[in-house]
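Phage tail protein: structure, please.
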Amino acid sequence: MSVTTTNLIMGPATLYLADFGATEPTDTAVNDAPAASAWTDLGGTQDGCKLTIDQTYTDLEVDQAVDVVGARLTKRVFTIETNLAEPTLENLRYILNDGTAASGSGFKSFEPIYASSATQPTYRAILLDGYGPNQLRRRILVRKCLSSDKVESTYKKDSQTLFTVKWSGFFVTSGIAPFKLIDATS
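Here you go.
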């Protein structure tokens, strides 16, 4: 068995969040941080960042063959999961898909969306910047997503407080792919 060791990947990733439809970094800028004017660095993570792509294929069958003759992609669910190590109110706002923040002399506060507008969620875009083959950069872009799972935050005397988060990606348009991966080659 031949193994190309330079194709093995290990290392942390950085997560950035932007408004849905924000200007995407160009493919040639894969080695550069995205523009801070549009993309927010979510800070430290713990236990890694996980991209999951779950595809469902439905079999095609005909009476004339005992074997399944083919299949069609009928569903795709893609997510990015992590634990945010910086459990700030700003990060809570992002992982609850928006809300109202306030601040004043000596305080900050946050209230989740709860009015009828809560039925129209605030979609975002997410970038996961990590490593790819040859220890060069790999960028994963999910163009339209929502934080879609329960959010947990545990306070314990012997453990760090984290925000668990899972972003689910969604269809954009028939002409725009919902996600994209870019690898640096030099």
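Notes: Residues 17-183 form one domain.
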